Amino acid sequence: MRWGRTGGAWAWAAASLLVGTATLANEPDPEAWGRTCSVRGGVVAFTEGGAVWRVNGETRTAVKLPTGDRLERAWCTDFGDDIVALYEVEEGEGGTGYLIRISPRGLVWSVNVLGFSFAEPLMAGDSVFVASPSTATRIDLGSGRIRWQRARLRQGYDLASKPRLEGSRLILSATRSADDSPAPPVELDARRGVPIRRPGE
User: Fold this and answer.
1) Are residues 55 and 84 in the same domain?
2) What values do phi and psi take at 46, rounded to 5?
3) How far apart (Å, rounded) are the C-alpha atoms in residues 125 and 79?
4) Residue 31: phi, psi to the nearest 5?
5) Can you give the pLDDT of all 201 residues of the chain as single tens digits?
6) Which of 81, 137, 83 is nearest to 111 (CA)?
7) What pLDDT score does 160 carry?
8) Cα 187 from chain centre
């Protein structure tokens, strides 16, 4: 599982909701997009209007997705017979993220995730944990429901890397925004998203 980064400017494809063995209208070659990510079950390629899941060069599923002004990058991983993906969209001066689950039959769910410039998500049990420089979110993999979401976790600091679990604690590495120097990690109760205070904080 990995992030797929964007390439240069290019013409967007017109898209409609299509599933099964269908393809997106005027679909460009995904190898030229720079917006693809590889998984055990093939390749997922993103356009302005949707995503195409291909296995051995053949389209398994094509789905319509909200994307905003500009698609930045995407991350994917296998989840049983399905795929879970996180993609970022630049919108005006900022951006946002969407977490989706795709099955061979089509889109299972899609949820807007607060934040931008996400670290690699953490898949753990029935949940996925997603962190950006200032936010953290826990999402149920079965339903797509946001279990909790926390913003502005520590002023003046950025959450820098993939979350990790230590027992019931979610650990988020941090750096100081001013100079990117290492800082004490942010710790949350993984079940409720409540900050765990360190002595002296």
Assistant:
1) yes
2) -110, 140
3) 11
4) -65, -20
5) 444 443 322 222 222 222 333 333 333 343 333 478 888 778 998 877 788 898 888 888 999 887 655 788 889 999 999 999 999 888 777 788 999 999 999 999 999 998 888 889 999 999 999 998 888 999 999 999 999 999 887 777 887 688 999 999 999 888 888 888 888 888 999 999 998 876 555
6) 137
7) 67
8) 21
Same domain, 98 and 142: no
Of 154, 166, 82, 180, whose CA–CA distance to 129 is shortest? Answer: 166
- Count of other CB atoms within 10 angstroms of residue 89: 22
β-pairing verdict for 169-176 and 164-166? antiparallel
What is the number of structural domains in the chain?
2
| Residue 172 belongs to domain with CATH number | 2.40.10.480
Residues 109 and 121 in one domain: no
Give the strand pairing for 122-124 and 106-113.
Answer: unpaired
- The token duo for 32 is 């030229």
The CA distance from 122 to 120, in Å, is 7
* Per-residue CA distances from 8 to 12, 27, 34 (Å): 12, 17, 8
Domain boundary, last residue among 77, 92, 113: 113
Residue 26 one-letter amino acid: N
